[in-house]
Sequence to fold (102 residues):
Amino acid sequence: MKIYKVQIKNAALYDLYSVERFIETKNTLIAAEIFISNLQKELNSLSYLADVIKKSDFETAKQYNKKAKVFITKNRKWSIIFHTFRNFVVVDRIIPAKMMTH
Fold:
């Protein structure tokens, strides 16, 4: 099994920030920080899960990279769009799961 280094693009970092701000408006800052911490653990799990996940058929994912893959978070609310390049998993975007279209 290949182990990758996880690299997060600036757009995905902004998505993380936006998710945190959204959760903070609905809950508390502590709840938002806990959620983001758990989301970051899921992002890090891509280091060993990337090869298990197949190339995506979603048009939404393909607009970021033609070889894009999609990882749905445990709570099924967020889609992590990523691709592999050499020894890296590159996280392109983090978007609401309901925005994924074929």
